[in-house]
What we know:
Blueprint: H1 2-18, E1 23-25, E2 29-31, E3 34-36, E4 39-41, H2 42-69, H3 74-107
Antiparallel strand pairs: 1-4, 2-3
Amino acid sequence: MINSIEALRSVTDGVTSKVSETRYVQPATDIAGVNDASEINFSDALANVSLEAIETLKHGEAAAISGISGKASAQQVVEAVMAAENTLQTAIAIRDKVVSAYQEMARMTI
C-alpha cells in the first residue's frame, strides 16, 4: 500500500510542476514591532501535507509489524493504526472534494 502511495507521489510531482502556482500572500502585519509578509505556495503546502500523511501511514504499518513480532505493545499498535486510519480517511475526503470540484468546473459552460 505504501509503495502505491509513493508511486502516486511520483506521478503527481510531474503534474504539480506543470500546474500554475496559486499563491496566497499574507498581508504585512505589525505584531510587537515585527513586519513580516510571508508567501505560501498552495502546491507546496499540499505536498507537505501528503508527505506527512505518507509518514503517518508508514509509521502505522511499522507499528503493526512490530506488534506482530512482539516488539511493540498492543496500545502502541492501536494508537499508530488509528492515526494512520484517520489520516487515510482525511486523504480520501480531500480527494473526493478535489474530484467533485473538478467535475463541477468541467460542467460549467464557457
